[in-house]
């Protein structure tokens, strides 16, 4: 399995909307004709991201293997149209990091087969389900300790945080020589997110993270209605 969680640096809100429109066309074809793409979703800022501009967007894509991305997904007409537009239309400030992640076997991508990227059209943008991405840089020699902490936390989330639709701990492929950890999580409501971060088990994990990391970047996102999760 191969995962990418790109942070795309759109140049402006106008360019963000142009980029999302291109991605929306890709998502339709991906869902209809790419069965080896397990999940494909793109999100916009929850307007609470001091570390990145609010006109940036975030993606989350899961493929059965590298070929499903390189030989199938990137060969579709809408994908090629997007690639042909990004440069000439000056949509992005810089190239997007598309390095592969892989599951660590900790946590879960979906709870009970539900589509965690589904959107309720009756909710306004600020009330849509919340996506949270933690990018963690462990101190040297501390990665395995952190993963054990996340394993305990993930068990708690699975059993008790029913409003957490996804809690998945990922790592970069060994070939990149990057010991970073990425935690991708989704919450039905902001209230469920607050419940998650304020529980005792999360407090214990947070203390261990602070002791054993060089840096942590946490960003928050809202569903755009683009994409799907699970097959």
Automatic annotation (TrEMBL):
It comes from the Eukaryota. SUPFAM superfamilies: Dimeric alpha+beta barrel. InterPro entries: Dimeric_a/b-barrel. This is ABM domain-containing protein.
């Amino acid at each position: 399995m191969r995962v990418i969680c790109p942070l795309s640096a759109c140049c402006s809100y106008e360019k963000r909307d142009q980029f999302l429109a291109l991605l929306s066309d890709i998502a339709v074809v991906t869902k209809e004709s790419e069965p080896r793409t397990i999940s494909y979703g793109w999100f916009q800022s929850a307007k609470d991201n001091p570390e990145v501009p609010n006109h940036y967007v975030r993606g989350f894509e899961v493929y059965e293997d590298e070929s499903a991305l390189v030989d199938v997904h990137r060969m579709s007409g809408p994908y090629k149209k997007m690639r042909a537009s990004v440069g000439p239309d000056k949509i992005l400030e810089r190239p997007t990091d598309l390095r592969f992640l892989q599951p660590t076997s900790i946590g879960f991508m979906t709870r009970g087969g539900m589509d965690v990227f589904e959107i309720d059209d009756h909710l306004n943008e600020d009330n849509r389900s919340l996506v949270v991405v933690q990018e963690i840089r462990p101190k040297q020699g501390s990665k395995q300790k952190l993963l054990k902490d996340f394993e305990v936390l993930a068990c708690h989330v699975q059993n008790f945080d029913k409003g957490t639709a996804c809690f998945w701990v990922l790592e970069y492929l060994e070939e990149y020589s990057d010991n970073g950890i990425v935690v991708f999580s989704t919450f039905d409501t902001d209230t469920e997110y607050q419940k998650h971060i304020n529980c005792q088990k999360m407090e214990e994990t947070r203390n261990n993270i602070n002791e054993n990391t060089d840096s942590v970047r946490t960003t928050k996102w809202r569903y755009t209605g683009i994409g799907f999760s699970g097959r």
